[in-house]
Amino acid sequence: MKHPKAILRDMTPALGKPGAPGRWRRVHADSPVQLQSDDWSDATWSFLYKDDTSYVTSSAGPSFRGPEAESREEGEARSPSVPDDVTVVQGPMMKPAVWTWEVPLYFWFGGIAAGSSFVGLACDLTGDPGSARVARALAVATALPCPLLLIMDLGRPARFLNMLRIFKPRSPMSMGAWCLVTFSTVGAAAVGADLLGADRAGRGLGALNALVGGYLGSYTGVLLASTAVPVWARSHLFLGPIFVATATATGASACRLALVATGRRPGDTTREALGRVEAGAMTVELLLSQLNGARLKHLAEPLESGASGRWIQAAKWLVRAGVALRVLRRPAGSRAHHLASASYLAAGLCFRYGWVRAGRVSARDDEAVARMARDRAAQGDQASVVEVTQH
Amino acid sequence: MTEVAIRGAEDVQRMGFFTDTTTCIGCKACEVACKQWNDLPADGGELRAGGSYDHTGSLGASTWRHVRFVEVLTQPEVHEPEEVDLLAVASGGMTLDRWVFMSDVCKHCTNAGCLDACPTGALIRTEFETVIVQPDVCNGCGYCIPSCPFGVIDRAPDDGRAAKCTLCYDRLEDGLEPACAKACPTDSIQFGPREELIVRAQERVATLHERGIEGAYLYGDQDTMAGGLGAFFLLTEAPERYGLPAAADSPIQQQVGPATGAAVGAGLAAAGAVAWAFAMKRDTPHSPVLAGIMVAGIVTDAVAGALRRRRRGDA
Questions:
Q1: What is the reported pTM?
Q2: In terms of CA atoms, which chain A residue is nearest residue B267?
Q3: Assembly ipTM
């Protein structure tokens, strides 16, 4: 039985059936909807300007222009471009990323996995299949926590599969998700082939995974570089190489420790080669960072001071300690070299945390955001003076 | 009268907002109307950081329209010591010269950074050429947030999904104008087809110039600003006063190509370098040359870093 008041009130929906969502197509073609205005008159009529300006009233015709209105070109010529004198910034200008500890930890694990896949390929090429198998297993083992960390960082973790809903080459996040899936699948297949004794299949899949790993280790830098955050955006040519160098170093360190744990003796050629790779890659990483810092000038501040700068500084000291331990290895014995590998691993983690935190600091730096935009507006002219006021 | 009411996907125009800051009185009716229509929670009444009277913060996941208060302070010219204004002294010697309001909103860019970044396809462009988040698809990865050069889109901590202005997509579909434009008592917010709004806005700029407001200009009507903003503004101060960048574009469209090139190149170089280091196997394992190169690299890094820190300390 109907509620008595329901009779008094017309509950017929404007579109579709009662209780169903409104449909896009009209039920009857061209039928107007309740409350629909034909001419957006609310937006055109104004009691303030009706008689005073060339704002149009509903009688002024279809062009929305008054009789003595300027042409668009005339109006453009009259309206000055964005003023470009000394500027006062009243933030906030943009929003920092909301990512928490999971993301830099994922970068670290993903980097180790990518570096291990490089090592696996190199071991195969130089005729050390035993070490190649260890490296491939390590690549899969370190790739396993990655999806978990990424899912933990989502605002809606239950919807993690939506990441694979589309394939979007221009979004590094989409490409990274697909890359991680490919890497884990191919890596697991390679390890499976190794376990089954199919050596050729294992080698082939391992080589393929080194190719995929090249993107896995570098796209994280591209991901950060393709944002509006000044310190990341301005580093866009260096972030990928820096992240690849860290990935190579941490991967080599992890492989070296894994080989030691599986009983490789000191003086083993692969162990020695890995020692060269880890220290060399970390040195390259430091030099690339320094070059990038020199290019960034004042924008490099979050990388050098404050909480994020402390992470980077800690990483640099760990690298220095590692190189010192390696150089002094002969008197201290191979245990010192294991310590050096561990310190490179820790340094890689500190670099990742430092870079992610630096982005948060940089996005909150209203002056940096404003100046980056000004420089883009000036297109390489003399950088304009930008000052930040408390207001 | 031009028939601009929406009849179907075939003949819709690009819809947008023209926000005229010279007529905004800071009543925040648009904010309230937006929250009411879109069922958004209140944010609490905290004054914006930096000493502004603005008590509704900034654009975010639960604030899709935000009336920004822009206090323009000046140093007063004091001739006699007795004339010192105690209130001015209390606020650091500055007095309020102009108080400007601006109703900020998602710009619905042509080159939308959030749209380029979204890995799930939750962010889409509608038939009105506006940009919206599909709440049933978004998984809250948060990549759109640093990708927006205007700091518009945000993730609600309690909801976990990204959210921003939809230009009242649900109202547009039924031929109604967006809630904020409907509520605006001074027509500071005007809604309509973008092309028509631009013509109207340019006329308004001309009128203001005639009346002596020479600093009035349009922000976002040109294609150089992120390909043209669906929601553009008439401003009278420098854009940074309103928290707007002087130039903007989709960061992905600007940077992803060169960044990927550099990264992939580095990846290939790294794989090659690893193979090379392995090929050196038969050389002496304790090469003093290699150790020397590494130590030289570390020292170079340390010295360069110290120099830069010192130079910055001087400056």
A1: 0.82
A2: A214
A3: 0.87
